[in-house]
Amino acid sequence: MGQLEITPLDAADPAAMAAWHAAYHAAHVAGRAYSTPWMLEEMRADLTADRPGSRSLGFSGHVDGTLVTTGLLGLPLMDNLHAADVEVHTHPAHRGRGHGSRMLEHLEGVAREHGRRTLRSEAATPYAGAADGSGHPHADFLLHRGFTFALGNVMRVLDLPADERMLQRLADEAAPRHAGYRIRQFAGPVPEDIVEPFGALVGAVQTEAPTGELDVEPEVFDAARIRADEEVFAASGRTKYTTVAIAPDGTVVAFSEVAVPAHDPGRVYQWGTLVLREHRGRRLGQATKAHNLLWLQRERADLALLVTYNAEVNRHMIAVNEAMGFRPVERLGEYQRTLG
Ligand SMILES: CC(C)(COP(=O)(O)OP(=O)(O)OC[C@H]1O[C@@H](n2cnc3c(N)ncnc32)[C@H](O)[C@@H]1OP(=O)(O)O)[C@@H](O)C(=O)NCCC(=O)NCCS
């Protein structure tokens, strides 16, 4: 058997991109009932994007001309400049030969070249397993290579359409708690008149949701970043459906949004839900989530499964999700490693 050769992926080359994605996808779905791989068009849009907020780099590992392992490096560019996100996927037929380890070392080297001192990564493990994922090869791969467990998330799914009366009841029961607040909804790009306050909400999600031991800063979402990201969503075939709550004084204080992928038919992914601190305790999280889903499933009868991830310690959000009928299916651990 020849040596592993690692080269940068040219995501604009259709054949190279398709081969990379095929190996990544096979590795991502192997042994998992509810995996959430990115589709080819989504990955291509991400890897070819020229946007202010972040940059993604792909790497291919070949042995004797066969693509056996893939690497992905994410570099935040407007915040979290100390960090890099790394992902390694080895095709199931080529595991246990050191390819993944070599790819991880390679990504570490590139992260160092970009001046990053923290590597962040994720591993999907069975729900019935340990909270930190240990004992499962996906997590052990990281834990045996200097990463420490930083935050445990649980992936939950909800079959659609959800019971409309239940959703309406959740919205109605929350309503008296935020009398005077208004609900506003939009599909696709954020309306121009609320782009700034909306960016402040989205930027706070990373640090306002539980962070465990993660070494993270709030994200910066100015109008330029939001608009550039919207172009990448469009190129990816993703449409966002968003519900915001507006306080009596006109400020945007809460949001909940989902993304519907054109290239992953039937699926919909919950993205952020956040209520500004000063406006908590008024059931605005429950209200925006229930209103968003009621609206979504009237608009999109083609959807079969809503997927969400929550930190295991996020009791409030999980209670809302459980009331909606979500069921836990898998764990997603977040791990990090400080580069010496
Ligand atoms: C995790 C993953 C990337 C590992 O890929 P891999 O190519 O099998 O990785 P390696 O071969 O380098 O290491 C895997 C195991 O094989 C063992 N191994 C490494 N070289 C070996 C060799 N030459 N002979 C036999 N075994 C070997 C290692 O000890 C390692 O075990 P450990 O993690 O308990 O220490 C792969 O399982 C995968 O794609 N999983 C899905 C995606 C994922 O979870 N990635 C991890 C987070 S980024």
Automatic annotation (TrEMBL):
- Cite the entry's keywords alphabetically: Acyltransferase, Transferase
Q: Does the keyword Transferase apply?
A: yes
Domain N-acetyltransferase spans what residues?
4-163, 200-340
What SUPFAM superfamilies is this protein classified in?
Acyl-CoA N-acyltransferases (Nat)
Q: Which PROSITE patterns is this protein grouped with?
A: GNAT
Q: Does the keyword Acyltransferase apply?
A: yes
> InterPro entries in the record, alphabetically?
Acyl_CoA_acyltransferase (IPR016181), Bact_Acetyltransf (IPR050832), GNAT_dom (IPR000182)
Q: Which domain of life is it from?
A: Bacteria
What is the name attached to this protein's record?
Answer: GNAT family N-acetyltransferase
Task: State the organism's lineage.
Answer: Bacteria, Bacillati, Actinomycetota, Actinomycetes, Propionibacteriales
